[in-house]
Amino acid sequence: MRDEMTFVEQVHRDLRDVRWPEPAEIRARARRRSRRTALAAAVAVLAVASTSAVAVGNWSGRRELSSASPPQAAVPATRVEIPPAALLQRDDLSARTGLQLSEAGLGGTVDVGVGLRRCAAKRKSGASAQETWVSRSQTVLRPTLGGGGGRLGDVLVVQDLHRLRGDGAARFFEGLRGQLAVCREWREVRSIEWGGESVTVEDVHRWEAPRRDFAGDESLLLRHSVSATLAPVDGQAPGQPSVPDATVVVRVGDLVSVLILEPTTEAELVRLAGLAARRMCAAANPSC
Fold first, then answer.
1. Which of 120, 143, 194, 273 could bond 98 through an S-S bridge, CB–CB 3.0 to 4.6 Å?
2. Which string of DSSP letters, residue by residue, matches 58-99?
3. CA angle 30-33-39, nearest 5°?
4. pLDDT, tens digit, for every residue of 160-175?
5. CA distance 266 to 261
């Protein structure tokens, strides 16, 4: 009996010495594991599909000896993962670069701006969000002034690259054109603090696409501007009118890239869009 108690006490002591992960750490591990599992499963399914296609081709070739049926063409393998080389590289940028941050993930949707999404939902454009299969994004910063102090440089380039299933990329562009058609101008009312008081103001959003189809299979240069918000009581403008911002959206096959350059230079965005399309070609389905 004493031996059994000693064993139980030893177990209790061992359990007290175990370091249990924090809940946040467990969730982070689970997210990483689920992403790896999902991607591995997708690659495994595609590998099986490719192997099956080869097996069918070989079997039909052998059967051709006894029948007149033509040999079947091999089915090209479908790319899933987006390699880092499909993104713009530092050599593509005309400005000096500093820190480069990147991330890859599964799922989500292509985002070209919160305002356009809200307007399309209010106007009921009918364009459904296309679910992303896999994605890769990067943020390139400018070099820090002085090179010290531990501070980060300003944002130079933001690029999101998405792979969509089937014809999802083409349908995304169709929906985007529909959103732009119904959201040329959109008024949004909100409240702000002005002169120590809460006042109601109105923003007038405008979207236009001054250039189309200049890179890849499809492309759009989106220009978004917001007029000065006016206080309805006295007609004064709380703050300066915003400078128009520009975004480039490019499609190559099943890949869609959203590209933002700071500060906004439309000519440079168009140039980078052509380079981005060439980088995307090798990773697209079908490849260029």
1. 143
2. HHHHHHTTTS-PPPPPPPPPPP-S--GGGS--GGG-SS----
3. 135
4. 999 999 999 999 999 9
5. 9
